[in-house]
Specification:
The complex is a heterodimer. By secondary structure, chain A is an alpha+beta fold. Chain A is built from nine helices and seven strands; from the N terminus they run ββαββαβββααααααα. Chain A has two domains: about 120 residues, Beta-grasp domain (Ubiquitin-like (UB roll)), CATH 3.10.20; about 140 residues, Fumarate Reductase Iron-sulfur Protein, Chain B, domain 2 (Orthogonal Bundle), CATH 1.10.1060. Chain A is elongated. The termini of chain A are far apart. By secondary structure, chain B is an alpha+beta fold. Chain B has 17 helices and 21 strands. The longest helix of chain B is centred in the last third of the chain and has 25 residues. Classes of the chains: A alpha+beta, B alpha+beta.
């Protein structure tokens, strides 16, 4: 095998010293008007969206010379493992830390558009409130109901294959990309309506993750009760956008299909039990 | 009488473990975090978590040897009894995580797989791919969500800790709550708590770019320090040998890459410009393997870091003449690598655009972890030999078997408690356990150990200590109101300074922050020297003055992140001063602290804890004795070939 066959796709050669324009959708807070502002940034070598937003924060002046405020945004680990910095970049939802400027804007004057995710209420600018996403994890009881933290020996043994399969599902960082891309998932600001609104791919994947753990399966019935109800698996329109945008390559559609089958069996069993 | 409540600040591994343990004991918990707890910095931990296990045990390993390795790895600076207890508990912690459903890598028979890690010749590191921290924090996050849905834990996410509320009593100082701010609405409030657990992690941002998350400013610890809480060993900052340089941060390339067989090398010939694969084996300099035949690439972090630094800066052998060396995995089967290290290989692919399965990675050291933190005390356990023993001979019979309570007395009220009664420090912000250098895969362990083991102390304190008679809920509101007013005043100072657009560089908080990071990286990382440290002290004084007159570009009373940063910067400057002062006054070399002007370890004068106190705006230091009653100090050579202590890089070019 030659080395060349392993080469990753070549990245565009970025022009050093170039200026990149950032067109950013801004909003000072809930209920405040939306406005667009454009900033010019000279990206340093290896720059990403975060390092450019940091430059803008240090010198918040638009291309028209307008003095403005620093852009607010959410971020954390900067290595695509915490999920915080998700936003819509050139129309596509993804983490901004792993979005490299050399790739997105290699030439002088290239423009990058930044918008907040549209399926969650805006806190300010690019920062959104994803509380509903975490609430969904409560709805599906996404945990193993252990007896407590006292010493009780090892957990259930499992095969390497099972562990690998659960590991992939368990890398979900609750970023919300799958929800942003989903045509069925709509913004809902009223928490009282969350229990009956579509729960989304990420939560169905979590339900499957815990259903497939020997102790976690104790709550399988309760999880399926939730997912066979309003806002559950039947609300999925099978657009399959979720799996396309998942940054962790989690087999979301497979998880939804598995949950769908489990719900059917669960419903029939319930019907027979009366 | 008001019901008891406990406040936990920080939702990483230590905070979540503490919250779960305390809630389980029936005491309601208020959990504060700057971010949704699932996004805490613990997610960045990659390599694994150490514990004695049955395979290693049958090869001659023991909890006692884990303890011995940790003390030796930390260059004999840690108090020894707490470390013994942590090592004894480690296997229980792995079992518990296993029960919580952590998808540990498995062997073909379905047992938990193990890997090698720095500072040990036994496989004693449990792992979940190369995102172990992420998997562990998710497991604890799930358990905490369960308690949250049962009403035992209340989360305050996007809330920033501002100040501890401490009252003076006849029995001394007692912590009775905190002031915190909702960083969306900007509301400042006091919260009453019968005990407060600080689990706020490290301070990498003081060094500008590091492997840490953007939230790891150290501001919470600095605020406690400013309020009178003592800080231990501030100068002990770990610089990790292998990170990927970047524009916004230095991304960690886990030690597990070396644990799984990764080799560090440079071309033997200076200026060799051939691609790495074209350089024949004989013309590659595997300097760690040649210098440390026993440990090779898995020498502890401080040693690997100094060797890499020295190869680049002193010898000029860095790849392409730059400050970088190869970390090479290309001799391993790509599929094996994906199973064991997939997560970190993906990070390299994403950020560098090169597949490390087929091309050696280029890496350089980066600030990673703070061994120092809030000073805490403990009650010694039942193992107290007549005299300290010499270093444990690997594979020989341990003097004791692992039992609970030999190292620390379980449930003693002062375990992991600071000098202020009722104020505890867990995890990275606790200075205990790691001495002058932390061994890889011991951090996750110390976080969870604190939460589970010292969490019992918090519950006992609430039930049997001062809060038993005088719950925080029954105290007068005056002390709480005073701290809220103090914090509102600070915010007002910043908001009043605001005008849109950039302040000039002299008064721009972001520029001051960048200069702070550059200065601390240059003066207080791999090599340190009196002259440079004195210069650093001067620079910090200048930055503090500029910070006093700094101005914001944003005066918003809603979600004002610029204000949050500027305020934290003031706290980072206080912590930076303590770090630099500790580095200056510890006139020896030990673990991560390396002085070119004092290259040797000096046990007579400095086998002591650096204790920093802050009063009236000034930081003072003293050196206090440590508990070294279990193991005698020995030379820490890791079997280096010429048997001299590890690399002694010169000052030249420091600052990279």
């Amino acid at each position: 095998m030659t080395h060349a066959s392993h080469a990753l796709p070549a990245r565009p050669v970025a022009k050093p010293g170039r200026t990149v324009r950032f067109r950013i959708k801004r909003c000072d807070g809930p209920g405040k008007p939306v406005r667009w502002e454009t900033f010019a940034v000279k990206p340093e070598a290896g720059a990403n969206i975060i390092s450019c937003l940091q430059q803008i924060a240090a010198s918040p002046i638009t291309v028209d010379g307008q003095k403005t405020t620093p852009v607010a945004w959410d971020s954390g680990c900067l290595e695509e493992v915490c999920g915080a910095c998700t936003m819509v970049i050139n129309g596509k939802t993804r983490q901004s830390c792993s979005c490299l400027i050399d790739e997105y804007a290699p030439n002088e004057g290239d423009e990058i558009t930044l918008e907040p995710m549209s399926k969650f209420p805006v806190v300010r600018d690019l920062w959104v409130d994803r509380a509903r996403l975490f609430d969904a994890l409560k709805r599906v009881k996404a945990w193993v109901p252990i007896d407590g933290t006292y010493s009780l020996g090892a957990g259930p043994r499992e095969s390497a294959e099972q562990s690998e399969s659960r590991y992939v599902m368990s890398t979900c960082m609750s970023c919300g990309c799958c929800l942003e891309a989903c045509p069925q998932y709509q913004i809902e600001e009223n928490p009282e309506k969350w229990p009956t609104s579509f729960i989304g791919a990420h939560a169905m994947n979590q339900a499957r993750l815990f259903n497939e753990h020997a102790t976690g399966a104790v709550l399988k019935g309760a999880r399926l009760d939730t997912l066979m109800g309003e806002g559950g698996v039947n609300d999925c329109g099978n657009a399959q956008n979720c799996v396309q945008v998942c940054p962790k390559h989690i087999p979301l559609t497979e998880s939804i299909a598995t949950i769908g089958r489990s719900v059917t069996i669960h419903a029939v069993a319930r019907w027979f039990r009366g | 009488m008001a019901q008891h409540r406990v406040i936990v600040v920080g939702g990483g591994l230590a905070g979540l473990a503490a919250a779960a343990r305390i809630a389980e004991a029936g005491v309601p918990v208020d959990l504060f975090s700057l971010v949704p707890v699932k996004r805490s910095h613990s997610v960045c931990a990659q390599g694994g978590i150490n514990a004695c296990n049955e395979v290693a045990r049958q090869q001659g390993y023991s909890e006692y040897e884990h303890f011995d390795e940790t003390i030796y790895g930390g260059d004999f600076l840690a108090d020894q009894h707490p470390v013994l207890e942590m090592a004894n508990w480690a296997p229980r912690i792995i079992d518990l995580l296993d029960r919580m459903g952590v998808p540990f890598n498995r062997t073909s028979e379905g047992y938990r797989d193990l890997r090698l890690f720095g500072g040990s010749l036994f496989k004693r590191t449990h792992f979940s791919g190369a995102t172990t921290g992420q998997q562990l924090i998710y497991a604890l996050d799930e358990q905490v969500r369960r308690y949250e849905s049962e009403g035992q834990i209340t989360k305050y996410e996007f809330w920033e800790f501002l100040w501890p509320i401490i009252e003076d009593t006849a029995q001394g100082q007692r912590c009775v709550g905190i002031a915190a701010q909702d960083m969306r609405t900007m509301q400042i409030r006091a919260f009453r708590g019968d005990a407060v657990v600080m689990a706020t992690g490290g301070c990498g941002l003081v060094f500008g770019k590091s492997t840490n998350s953007i939230i790891c400013t150290g501001a919470a610890a600095a605020r406690c320090f400013r309020a009178g809480v003592w800080y231990g060993n501030p100068e002990m900052i770990q610089v990790h040998p292998t990170a990927i340089p970047g524009a916004d941060k230095l991304r960690l390339m886990s030690e597990s890459a070396r644990g799984e067989g990764g080799r560090v090398w440079v071309p033997r010939k200076k200026g060799d410009s051939r691609p790495p694969r074209d350089i024949p084996e004989a013309e590659r300099y595997y300097f760690l393997e040649e210098r440390y035949p026993a440990y090779g690439n898995i020498v502890p972090r401080d040693i690997a870091t100094r060797e890499i630094f020295s190869i680049c800066v002193n010898d000029g052998l860095g790849v392409a003449g730059e400050n970088q060396v190869y970390l090479d995995l290309t001799h391993k089967d790509p599929e094996y690598l994906t199973k064991k290290l997939g997560g970190i290989l993906e990070i390299y692919e994403k950020f560098v655009g090169v597949d490390p399965r087929h091309e050696p990675m280029k890496i350089f050291p980066a600030v990673h972890y703070s061994m120092g933190g809030l000073w805490t005390s403990f009650t010694k356990g039942s193992y107290n030999p007549d005299a300290p023993r010499t270093k444990h001979k690997s594979g020989s019979r341990p003097p004791i078997v692992a039992e609970v309570g030999q190292g620390m007395q379980l449930g003693a009220l002062n375990n992991a408690q600071t000098n202020v009664t009722g104020l505890y420090a867990f995890g990275e912000v606790n200075f205990g356990y790691h001495g002058a250098n932390r061994l890889g895969a011991n951090a996750l362990l110390s976080c969870i150990f604190d939460g589970l083991f010292c969490g019992v102390s918090v519950v006992n304190y609430v039930r049997d200590g001062a809060p038993a008679k005088a719950p925080a809920g029954d105290l007068s509101s005056a002390g709480y109101d005073r701290v809220v007013a103090q914090e509102q005043q600070k915010v007002k100072r910043w908001v009043d300074s605001a005008s849109a657009g950039a302040a000039e560089p002299r008064t721009n908080p972001y520029i001051i922050g960048k200069e702070l990071g550059d200065e601390m990286t240059a003066a207080c990382t791999v090599v340190r020297h009196q002259t440079r440290l004195a210069q650093c002290a001067g620079k910090l004084g200048e930055l503090r003055e500029r910070h006093d007159s700094a101005m914001l570009a944003d005066g918003a009373s809603w979600s004002n992140q610029a204000m949050g940063y500027a305020r934290a910067l003031g706290d980072m400057l206080v912590l930076a001063e303590a770090i630099a002062k500790g580095a200056m006054e510890r006139k020896e070399s030990r673990g991560a602290h390396y002085r070119t002007d004092f290259p040797d370890r000096d046990d007579a004068n400095f086998m002591k804890t650096t204790l920093a106190k802050h009063q009236g705006g000034a930081t003072t230091l003293e050196f206090i004795p440590i508990d070294a009653s279990l193991i005698l100090p020995t030379a820490r050579t890791y079997g280096k070939k010429d048997d001299k202590p590890a690399a002694k890089p010169a000052m030249a070019g420091a600052g990279s």
